[in-house]
Amino acid sequence: MGSHQDSTPESPDSPDPLPVPATAAGRAGLDALLARPGRAVIALDFDGTLAPIVPDPDLARAHPGAVPALAALAPHVASVAIVTGRPAGTAVRHGGLADVPGLDRLVVLGHYGAERWDAATGTVTAPPPHPGVEAARADLPGLLAGAGAGEGTRIEEKGYALAVHTRRAADPQGAFEALRGPLAELARRHGLLVEPGRMVLELRPPGMDKGVALRDHVRATGAGSVLYAGDDLGDLPAFAAVGALRAEGVPGLLVASASAEVTALTERADLTVDGPSGVVGLLRALTARLSR
């Protein structure tokens, strides 16, 4: 459904030509953003969208061009928000997002919106921890040992959630499939949800997802248009939220950061770009157009 970067004929000499969305709804969303940028929300996932996927999530860092591109675009729009399953503070540190000139109004919605970091204050607001996460934390090492997932499977501690990564296992996909059932049962016992992703299974509390977080933020800002970019299954609720906002009269543009591991977003996107480098190119192209 999405399209790769067909440039507009208006800027043939631009190093970052603005791509043309493949769908009418996407073109309407882009047109609304360009016509009234001061009422636009730019929202993006972190891992796989602003930061390349790496075997060890602790080593994930934003693409070198991501923060400069966001800082250049932010003054033109109503809001820039990063919507991530990571703790908000982790995304801020790994992204190098604190104290960046131009990003003084940046918002990071962490733990699928349960946490919020505001650049203006440098503080994180968050609800109390879900008791099921603590219970699952105690059970998880024994479950992994007995599930036959093999060496290389690791637990990522996310505070309000837990993630099990299989990318470094000898058979990443086999370990992923072996753990799906046991982790689903563990989550059920403790009142949690399992969110599958790119060689990762995350246990988190119910009630929040990226769609809820995005809609709440768009409504709070009174936005007249929204762009959302993501790469993984956890971004599908945000894609659905943009669809719902469109039905309410708020134009939107859905951008997929392409991955061979996950195709569900490219099938639903208005525009597909080539991973984090393509996302950076899109942000630069938007800034160039809005700076005319």
Outline of the structure:
This protein has nine helices and twelve strands. By secondary structure, the protein is α/β, with parallel strands linked by helices.
Give a description of the structure:
The protein is of the alpha/beta class. It is 37% helix and 18% strand. The protein is built from nine helices and twelve strands. The chain has helices at residues 24-35, 66-73, 88-95, 131-146, 172-189, 210-221, 236-247, 264-268, 275-290; strands spanning 40-44, 79-83, 107-110, 115-118, 123-125, 154-157, 162-165, 193-197, 200-204, 225-230, 252-257, 271-273. The strands form two sheets. An eight-stranded mixed beta sheet has the order 5-4-3-2-1-10-11-12, sandwiched between helices. β6 (154-157) and β7 (162-165) form a beta hairpin. The longest helix has 18 residues, at 172-189. It is globular, with a radius of gyration of 19 Å. The two termini are 30 Å apart. Mean pLDDT is 91; it is low at 3-14.
Which helices and strands, and how do they pair?
Blueprint: H1 24-35, E1 40-44, H2 66-73, E2 79-83, H3 88-95, E3 107-110, E4 115-118, E5 123-125, H4 131-146, E6 154-157, E7 162-165, H5 172-189, E8 193-197, E9 200-204, H6 210-221, E10 225-230, H7 236-247, E11 252-257, H8 264-268, E12 271-273, H9 275-290
Parallel strand pairs: 1-2, 1-10, 2-3, 10-11, 11-12
Antiparallel strand pairs: 3-4, 4-5, 6-7, 7-9, 8-9
Helix pairs in contact: 2-9, 4-5, 6-7
